[in-house]
Request: fold
Amino acid sequence: MAFKDHFSGHAGSYARYRPDYPSELFEYLATLTPSHEVALDCATGSGQAAVGLAKHFNCVVATDGSVAQLRNAQSHPHVAYLANLAEQPALRDGSVDLAAAAQAAHWFDHARFHPEMRRVLRADGVLALWTYGLAFVAAPIDAIVRHFYDEVVGPYWPPERRHVESAYRDLPFPWRELASPSFELRLDWDLDDFVGYVGTWSAVQRYTKVSGADPLPVLRAEIAPLWGTGQRPVVWPLHLRIGRPQ
Reply:
C-alpha cells in the first residue's frame, strides 16, 4: 500500500525539534490496561511516544514506514524499532496491551488500520490516538504564527491536516470510546528552538520545495522583537481519542 512520507527528508530536524509528550500522559495510559507487557507505537517517527511508553511497558514495538525517521529515533533498551506500516503490524493476534499513535493517525488508511488494531490488541486492550495543533506562546506572537500557518504556508498543507485542526473528532473511531483527562505539552524554548520546530511542518517543507525559498527567516524576523531574549513557555493542548474493543 502507498505510504505518505512527509518527513524522511528532514528526519534529523524532526528528531531535534519535535516536542516530547508529558509524563502524566503515559502514566494515565498505563492505568487503562491490566497488563503492561507490550505496547505498540504506530508511526513512531523519532520515538518520542515510544520512549514515554517504555517507562510503563516491558516492551514497546515502535513502527514507522520511514527508515530515515527510525535512524534518528531515540534509543531505549525497552523499545524495538521496526520498519513497518501502521496498517500492517507484524505482530501476533491478541499480543498487545496498548496501541498508540501520536500525531500520526491523520495519515492512516483507517479502513485498514482499525481492523489490524482490533486483531493485535488483547480483549482488555486499549487504543490511544492523540494530536496537537498550533502552539501558544503569547497573543502577539500567536497572531503572527497563525497568519504564517493560514496564509503563507496554508496552501501547502496536505489535506489530512484538517483532521488535526478538528482535534481528530472527524476521524473514524469504531471503538467504545473513553473520556480522558486534559493534557498539554509545555516546554521552555528560545526563539531558535521555536523556529526550528516550525521548520518541521510538512507545509513548510513543501513551500520551500515548490517555491525555492525558505519562509522561516521572515517569520523569525517578525517574531524576534516580541520574543525578547532567552526562553519562553510554549504550550500545545493535546487532543486524545481513547477506546476499547466493542
User: Anything to note?
Assistant: The longest helix spans residues 139-152.
